[in-house]
Amino acid sequence: MNKGSDVISALQFTRSDVERLITIAEELRRRLEAGERIEAAKGRILFTAFFEPSTRTRLSFQFAMVRLGGSVVDLGPEEVTSRAKGESPEDTLRTVDSYNPDVIVVRHREPGFASKAAEICRAPVVNAGDGYNEHPTQALLDVYTIWRSLGRVDGVSIGLMGDLKYGRTVSSLSYILSNFRDVTIYFISPPALRPREEVLRILDQRRTRYEFAESLDEVVSRVDVLYVTRLQKERMSPEEYERLKGSYTVSYESLRKYGRIPLIMHPLPRVWELTPDVDVLPQAIYFEQARNGLYMRMALLKTILGV
């Protein structure tokens, strides 16, 4: 990955790309924690265009740019933009791109929209989630979190649990993990929520080991990390959601029965699938995971801007 690159898919990243970003993220973390004021992106502008709701991704990108010394312009809610008058997101992006931002971060509910945005815009485009398809920067911060927690990514066994069909974080994380040696992925879900065929095909091509399980009980003794995801209610029919709701829940009570509890991650937001009483466990690292997003996105923006 180089200066000026678009970031559309986790498949763009090689192992060396990921390791380089982790090194940059660690250096930026050290400098910020030492109280240093960073001005690397002074005079640069990040534009955030979220056509779908977001908290952590939008805010961490905005904080990341400000922490690098740059500025942020945000599209704002739909009701105060010309989107409320029926303007297409493509025309919105064409207009904004004409103002010459240095980077554009886009989220949209349409799979493949980030790729379309990259074709429209001269500024580098970063995919902050395109429907059920991908979320590459989430995957980068997830792998960074695993590395910080375990000191390695090679040899990691991870259980990806929940909505593996519609959850975009799962596909991107699987792709990033496939760059590392001796990784095993356990897909834990009802059969109806197993990963999409295109995701499994890529893992097969990259010779990444994976297995299916329908409950955590089957694999908990073998996983270093349990990555829990919510049901993507907005991407399924009400009937499908009601049928699958409650098919899995991770709680303090459910974890207590295991002799060994793995690290617990979640891309957030959580609903009922991960109960708040889990927060007290030392293995619960999902809020640290969210914090790591700041440093990884700083490292990514620094690389794209070439500063």
UniProtKB/TrEMBL annotation:
Pathway: Pyrimidine metabolism; UMP biosynthesis via de novo pathway; (S)-dihydroorotate from bicarbonate: step 2/3. Keywords: Pyrimidine biosynthesis, Transferase. Residues 6-147 form the Aspartate/ornithine carbamoyltransferase carbamoyl-P binding domain. One of its GO terms (biological process) is amino acid metabolic process. GO terms for molecular function: amino acid binding; aspartate carbamoyltransferase activity. Its EC number is 2.1.3.2. It catalyses: carbamoyl phosphate + L-aspartate = N-carbamoyl-L-aspartate + phosphate + H(+). InterPro entries: Asp/Orn_carbamoyltranf_P-bd (IPR006132), Asp/Orn_carbamoylTrfase (IPR006130), Asp/Orn_carbamoylTrfase_sf (IPR036901), Asp_carbamoyltransf (IPR002082), Asp_carbamoyltransf_Asp/Orn-bd (IPR006131). It holds the Pfam family OTCace_N. SUPFAM superfamilies: Aspartate/ornithine carbamoyltransferase. Carbamoyl phosphate binds at residues 56-57, 107, 135, 138, 268-269. L-aspartate binds at residues 85, 168, 230. It is an enzyme of class 2 (transferase). Catalyzes the condensation of carbamoyl phosphate and aspartate to form carbamoyl aspartate and inorganic phosphate, the committed step in the de novo pyrimidine nucleotide biosynthesis pathway. Belongs to the aspartate/ornithine carbamoyltransferase superfamily. ATCase family. Heterooligomer of catalytic and regulatory chains. This is Aspartate carbamoyltransferase. The lineage of its organism: Archaea, Thermoproteota, Thermoprotei, Desulfurococcales, Desulfurococcaceae.
